[in-house]
């Protein structure tokens, strides 16, 4: 990172900058909920944004269709008044799979992600017969690591198979614990020479889809400098925001909480300066 990058501005709440943005692209897991409970302050902030004219699109690397995320949010008690639309890496991933219709696929991930391929022409086969690999996660993210699949990945790389990664996140917080995601497997695959196509953040297609949906709902174009992106991960949320031309807003109490929550703001600024990307703004939790 350049030493000339502007310092991150500390916020006590989103209301301090609300008038600067017409669209908020908000991460879900780590900001709105932690996989166990929803964060009431974040919900109230999103509702307040919409009441004041800022559109809210929830953008998540969940490898599932948006309808399932909406159902999950409802289960957590998140009202529909907190968002205008939802875009998932699963939505982008389904388009990538459709482009390979009929090609034999090996699916690496838990069965809870099966809705991702429902209705698609994506015949599942054993590893040795696969034409490409779909990675939605680890079979057991409580115990497995990318090393668990070392032999499998080596075989795929040796045959030159492309992996579609449905969730570029390396890790996620689940009820205070950090567990690995599909992105960690994809990274391990790249490190041994495998080719990976990523469906979600920080890559542009998911942001472009979110912006297009927001503009359609508002009935008018939205300038990039009127877009912000809230998230808890430097590698996906903040890097993706910067690449898309949006203002990155970092929630500290997510996957980087161990480094940031107990630190002073001077220490936080030092930490940001050591990262690949620096957020424009930061606050402990998303609140109004």
Automatic annotation (TrEMBL):
User: Which is a Gene Ontology cellular component entry for this protein?
Assistant: cytoplasm
Which NCBIfam families does the entry link to?
HAD-SF-IIA (TIGR01460), HAD-SF-IIA-hyp4 (TIGR01459)
Q: What is this protein called?
A: HAD-superfamily class IIA hydrolase, TIGR01459
Q: Name one GO molecular function term.
A: phosphatase activity
The record's section on CDD domains has: HAD_like
- Entry keyword set: Hydrolase
- What superkingdom does the record give? Bacteria
Q: Which Gene3D superfamilies match?
A: HAD superfamily/HAD-like
């Amino acid at each position: 990172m350049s030493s000339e990058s502007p310092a991150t501005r500390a916020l006590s709440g989103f209301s301090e900058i609300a008038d600067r943005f017409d669209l908020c692209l908000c991460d879900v897991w780590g900001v709105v909920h932690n996989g166990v409970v929803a964060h009431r302050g974040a919900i109230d902030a999103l509702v307040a944004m919409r009441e004041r004219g800022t559109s809210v699109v929830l953008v998540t690397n969940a490898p599932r269709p948006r309808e399932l995320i909406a159902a999950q949010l409802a289960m957590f008690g998140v009202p529909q008044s907190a968002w205008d639309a939802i875009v998932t890496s699963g939505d982008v991933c389904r388009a990538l799979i459709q482009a390979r219709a009929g090609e034999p696929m090996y699916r690496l991930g838990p069965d809870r992600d099966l809705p991702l391929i429902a209705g698609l022409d994506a015949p599942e086969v054993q590893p040795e017969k696969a034409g490409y690999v779909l990675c939605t996660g680890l079979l057991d993210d409580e115990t497995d690591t990318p090393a668990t699949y070392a032999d499998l990945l080596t075989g795929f790389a040796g045959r030159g198979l492309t992996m579609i990664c449905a969730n570029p996140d390396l890790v996620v917080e689940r009820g205070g614990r950090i567990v690995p995601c599909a992105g960690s497997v994809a990274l391990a695959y790249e490190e041994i020479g495998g080719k990976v196509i990523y469906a979600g953040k920080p890559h542009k297609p998911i942001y472009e889809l979110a912006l297009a949906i927001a503009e359609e709902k508002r009935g008018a174009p939205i300038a990039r400098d009127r877009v912000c992106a809230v998230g808890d991960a430097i590698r996906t949320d903040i890097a993706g925001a910067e690449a898309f031309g949006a203002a990155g807003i970092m929630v500290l109490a997510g996957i980087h909480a161990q480094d940031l929550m107990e630190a002073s703001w001077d220490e936080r600024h030092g930490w940001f300066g050591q990262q690949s990307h620096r957020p424009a703004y930061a606050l402990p939790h998303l609140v109004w």
